[in-house]
Amino acid sequence: MAERDAAIYDGLARVPEVACEKGAGLDALLKGAREPFVLRGLVADWPLVAAGKESARAARRYLVDRARDRPFSVSIGPPGHDGRLFYDADMAMNFRSGTGKLADIFAGIEAAEEQGEQRTVYLGSIDIPSHFDGLDEANSVDLGAREPFRSIWIGTRTRIAAHNDFPDNLACCAVGRRRFTLFPPDQYRNLYLGPIDNTPAGRTVSMVDFDAPDLAAHPRFVEAMAHGQVAELEPGDAIFIPSMWWHHVEGLEPFNILVNYWWRDTPAWLGQPQAALNHAILAIRDLPAADKAIWRDLFDHYVFDAGKDVTAHIPEKARGILAPLTAETAGRLRAFLLRMLSK
Is pTM, for the whole model, over 0.70? Predict the structure, then answer.
């Protein structure tokens, strides 16, 4: 692996750290938050954290004892893999995916440890309630009225390319250490994003290798780093990553566990913006420039500006989907789109 160009990281800002108690204090911090922050020791009382401080094997035993008898999805790098779950030279994935019992996956990790082998093994975004009994109840964060999706991320030393997510995210370091390098949403141009429809884990990723940035190929990455923030989490620490913030994530120890909570402050029946972007690529991007200009203006009118002039002249009962959406009108709109896309 090439040595990291230290000059690129000189002066990188630290993610701000804030103090709060669980419960109402955390709820108040998260409400409307649009900037990242670190919460030291937020989950230091978790039994999983205590098991990890005893040893990596103790943490694995703790999980296996609570794992359901079902397959777990896993990504495995070939011999000599450097932990960067990314593309190969042909833009295929540089790891293979499979499934297995959690105990068997962990046995493979332990066998490699005993033989002194460097292996890349990664279980990403495992749904906690469907894969474990009692894990969530014993290791939880009170997020108030939010109804988050609860995931666990387990693996050896790994590097996950910078990407973003639509939901807000509270990520809790349970075992090992994690480094997060964050960028505001507007830095996407400077991160040199890869394909939308061929990704390592469903989200578009930065093509820049953060350990060895090629500034000849990616010169604007210097500007991205000027806006970047970095945080290293110890066991028990947590970080809040707001919606659409780019984050590069590294598991720094031979064995690492992260638990995260995703949620949206908008109703669950609203559509996914990424689906709208994909459909716009299909329907609008390749139109003649004059036609695209018309549609850009219409999108501003109906979507991005959406002022009172859009509906003021229409009787209130006849405004349909131009009125603020409800679960009922959103359902009708979704059904209409499904019919249109099936043609």
Answer: yes
